[in-house]
Design goal:
A hairpin with a 3-residue loop joins β1 and β2. About 70% of the residues lie in helices and about 0% in strands. The N terminus is likely disordered. A two-stranded antiparallel ribbon has the order 1-2. It has 32 helices and two strands. The protein is mainly α.
Length: about 675
């Protein structure tokens, strides 16, 4: 990695006085770490003829998607099924059945499964009009194709995404069949295998429903956009800018991790991938300045996870939210921007207070790049992101914005000789875009199964009614139960699948409380995402701890403390949707934002035990209580919360202002 033109990682690490740690990150094989913790990264590295064949298939997949986005006008069902055909066929060829199977060659069974699904899609396409015509009166072959096709979609998803979403889908299918045998409020008349299979495989309320439709249109293009950006060196540009802005401050490398992950995470679409890519640089630097391994890893994990809630792209979830809620994409991006800023500001506060507490300093300014030279040399690399934001702001369609963004990403590196990339890299971006969509599409297909069962049985409303009844009708308790549900459902699940599961099962519960749909969906999405840093699973925290050589569980606990703001913000915008710009005025937004920041500062100080000096347990409890008062944004609680935090700041200032930091500890 480079700081400007001449400095690489080793230079920076040596200049940061790392004694004996400069090669630590080299001991971590990033690809193997990703493959171990992130199933979608555990694809086969084929050689020879099958590498050529799968590469050709991936290229054809991308070209088909670009054609349909720019010129194609084919029926939605055919587009979705063809998209699914590419995905599942490639999934069996590229992903082994288990970790023990070879990642160098394809098993015979995988050839058979891949060919079988290819034939299933061919059957659907060739008999499309007949299948549509006999809707509700499917024949025996339709039933066989539907059953086998559904099973293969679930098996492909298990390989690529993991067990959690497949288990949930299986439970829902069993519920649809055995409904008559279930006592209580979940009882229903039950459905036959034929009805379930055909409903799931042939209707637009099942596998080829809205989630897959969104994947086949918007999401693919933005995943491809991200693949091109990766090849232009935009990630290194983000790191250099972050270092120039914050590297010199107290705890500089930790703040660099926050900025970099916020910028890169919104595009990457994976908390784990973002943690590994930026953490391999930021974590060793944090350790070199005195941070404990667990804290260094936790900073990166918490910041990388937050990238999934950062507009404009939000790991592709923004488009799914827009489609599910039925609002323009731009409304989702605008709604998410203030909570995202609050989230990263909360982490920034925790880092700053921890750095002051430990007496940690930043990297000397002379060893850091300057903002001016970076923008002069590589500022044009952000042109594709600017193009997308401007076009979306002009109310252009996401498809139009994404295709023009891709074009800008191809052109941008060639605007200066120093940033030109080989044509081979652009070809690889076409391949990577198609491969990266496989996990998202598999998750969308299986999420369609869950959605299909919900629409068939009405179980969503039943679950909501049952949970509200269990909470005794109390709004706060119902929200708490929904938070726990979303955290559990999100464990070990990639971003897109995470949202699809939580929005289908948990969001309707919040909506039954009278909460606006957009606020309900963001509430469940936030807590589903936080599962990546919440023990016991905490995949992003585990990835960070592997790089830092720290304790995974302690890293998860520390990351949860750092991200405490994310556990508070959803309650704020559910109780007062003005924070996400629903039915509000500029004055209300400013007031809620300021009081929310004050609340997070109070809670951050309570968590770290530090303001101007060490805070006693009584002072920490006082700060925590004052901060929590600001969750419910009423005038009285705002006055009490802001007044309490201000009083403690003043008390600590007069207590420690004449004491040196070392004595304050």
């Amino acid at each position: 990695m480079k700081f400007g033109k001449k400095k690489n990682d080793d230079d920076v690490i040596k200049n940061s006085q790392v004694n004996g740690l400069e090669n630590e990150e080299e001991e971590i094989d990033r690809d193997e770490l990703l493959a171990m913790l992130d199933k979608e990264s555990a694809y086969r590295k084929l050689e020879g003829v099958w590498k050529t064949i799968t590469t050709a298939m991936l290229l054809c997949f991308t070209l088909f998607q670009l054609y349909t986005a720019l010129l194609g006008t084919i029926p939605a069902q055919l587009l979705r099924m063809t998209h699914l055909g590419f995905v599942i066929t490639l999934a069996f060829l590229l992903y082994p059945a288990t970790k023990k199977r070879s990642r160098k060659k394809i098993d015979i069974l995988d050839y058979i499964l891949s060919a079988t699904f290819f034939c299933i899609v061919a059957y659907y396409i060739l008999n499309f009009e007949a299948i549509i015509g006999r809707s509700g009166a499917y024949n025996q072959m339709d039933l066989i194709v539907g059953v086998v096709g559904t099973i293969l979609v679930m098996e492909a998803c298990r390989r690529v995404v993991g067990w959690p979403i497949v288990i949930i889908a299986s439970i829902f299918i069993a519920y649809a069949y055995f409904g008559r045998n279930i006592p209580g409020f979940l009882n229903h008349r039950g459905y036959s295998v034929e009805r379930i299979a055909t409903h799931l495989f042939y209707t637009t309320e099942g596998i080829i429903g809205l989630p897959l439709g969104t994947c086949a249109t918007f999401i693919f293009l933005f995943i491809l956009f991200g693949a091109f950006l990766e090849k232009t060196g935009i990630g290194q540009f983000f790191i250099d800018i972050a270092n120039a802005i914050a590297g010199f401050a107290a705890g500089g490398p930790a703040k660099v991790a926050v900025l970099t992950s916020a910028l890169q995470g919104t595009i990457s679409g994976s908390s784990v991938s973002n943690t590994v890519s930026t953490g391999s640089f930021t974590i060793p630097l944090m350790k070199s300045l005195g941070y404990k391994p667990e804290f260094a890893a936790a900073v990166e994990a918490a910041a990388s996870t937050g990238g999934q809630i950062m507009p404009p792209i939000m790991g592709a979830a923004a488009f799914l939210i827009a489609e599910a809620v039925g609002v323009p994409y731009l409304d989702v991006a605008k709604a998410a921007i203030i909570p995202a800023i609050l989230y990263f500001t909360g982490i920034w506060m925790m880092i700053h207070l921890e750095a002051k507490k430990l007496g940690l300093v930043g990297i000397p300014r002379e060893q850091l790049p300057k903002v001016g030279p970076i923008f002069r040399e590589r500022g044009h690399l952000i042109l594709p992101i600017v193009v997308i934001i401007v076009l979306l702001g002009m109310d252009m369609s996401p498809i139009y914005a994404a295709t023009r963004g891709i074009l800008a990403a191809v052109i941008a590196p060639f605007l200066r000789k120093s940033t030109r990339v080989p044509l081979k890299d652009l070809f690889e971006a076409l391949i990577n875009g198609a491969r990266n969509i496989i996990s998202v599409a598999c998750a969308c297909g299986v999420a369609g199964i869950i959605v299909g069962i919900v629409t068939l049985t009405g179980v969503g409303l039943k679950l909501g009614g049952g949970l509200i009844a269990a909470a005794g009708g109390m709004v706060s308790l119902t929200l708490f139960f929904t938070m726990i549900t979303s955290l559990v459902l999100g464990m070990g699940v990639p971003t897109t699948a995470n949202y699809l599961i939580t929005s289908t099962i948990a969001a309707p519960i919040v909506m039954q409380l009278g909460v606006p749909a957009l606020a309900a969906h963001l509430f469940t999405f936030y807590f589903g995402i936080l599962a990546d840093i919440t023990p016991p699973v905490a995949l992003a925290a585990y990835a960070g701890s592997a790089i830092a050589k720290g304790n995974p569980f302690k890293t998860g606990v520390q990351a949860t403390k750092l991200a405490v703001a994310a556990f508070i913000i959803p309650y704020i915008f559910v109780m007062n949707p003005a924070l996400i710009l629903i039915d509000t005025t500029a004055v209300d937004v400013i007031r809620i934002t300021i009081t929310s920041l004050m609340g997070m500062f109070g809670i951050s100080a309570a968590m770290t035990g530090w303001l101007y000096g060490k805070a006693s347990w009584l002072e920490r409890l006082y700060l925590l209580g004052s901060g929590l008062l600001l969750i419910n944004p009423t005038l009285m609680t705002d006055i009490m919360g802001v007044g309490g935090i201000s009083a403690m700041i003043a008390f600590q200032y007069f207590k420690y202002k004449k004491i040196k930091p070392a004595q304050a500890a």
